[in-house]
Amino acid sequence: IFMQILSRRRTSISVENRLVNRRTGDAISLHWTINGQYDSHDQSVVVNGIARDLSSRKLAEEERLKAQKLESIGVLTGGIAHDFNNLLSVVVGNLDLMQEYGLIGERGLEYLGNARQACQRANELTLQLISFSQGAPPRLVAANLGELVALCVEKTRQRVEARIDLDIAPD
Question: Could you tell me if 17 and 49 are in contact, meaning their C-beta atoms sit under 8 angstroms apart?
């Protein structure tokens, strides 16, 4: 860069680069403005330059991009959650119709109840996704770990023929 100015190919140059400290590995983003002044015989008399530290601007730009990405994820999440909730409404409506018109037997009622519980949990999940998409803070809920494990084991028993014994102490 300096050689271009000294050889009179250019009188002014503006460039950005990064300098890295070899010992620490820290990098600094810099913007250089370099000017050359010449005498009447086109001989270089003065070359001066100014370097501006762009690190804080680059950091702010990265943070802005992260925020835009999060906002995009929120919008996408909200759209998916709404679509999924619409699908759940169809499933729950059909489950209600099956029960109302007696289209399933006694054993089927148990499966119907399980399907409704799964739909209810899925609906709660979509509500959490919609809250996330609107920027709401996460909602923490206390739960009984023993009840959650027992529920998971019960669901597993319905799908797999296996013997599972539990001994969960009450709170």
Answer: no
Residues with pLDDT less than 70, the chain: 1-10, 44, 158, 171
Residue 29 to residue 52: CA distance in whole angstroms:
8
H-only helix segments in the chain = 2-6, 55-100, 106-133, 145-159
Distance of alpha carbon 112 from alpha carbon 123, whole angstroms: 16
Provide the β-strand partners of residue 16. 31
Going by C-alpha positions, the residue among 93, 97, 92, 148 that lies closest to residue 119 is 92
pLDDT number for residue 142? 80
Write the DSSP symbol of residue 51: E
Instruction: Report which of 46, 48, 47, 57 is spatially closest to residue 16, judged by C-alpha positions.
Output: 57
48: left (phi over 0), alpha (psi -120 to 50) or beta: beta
Distance CA 36, CA 55 (A): 26
3-state secondary structure of 128: helix
Scored b (16 or more CB within 10 A) or e, 147-158 reads eeeeeeeeeeee
What does the block give as tokens for 127? 């509500």
Cα distances from 86 to residues 27, 63, 89, in angstroms, run 50, 35, 5
Residues recorded for the chain: 171
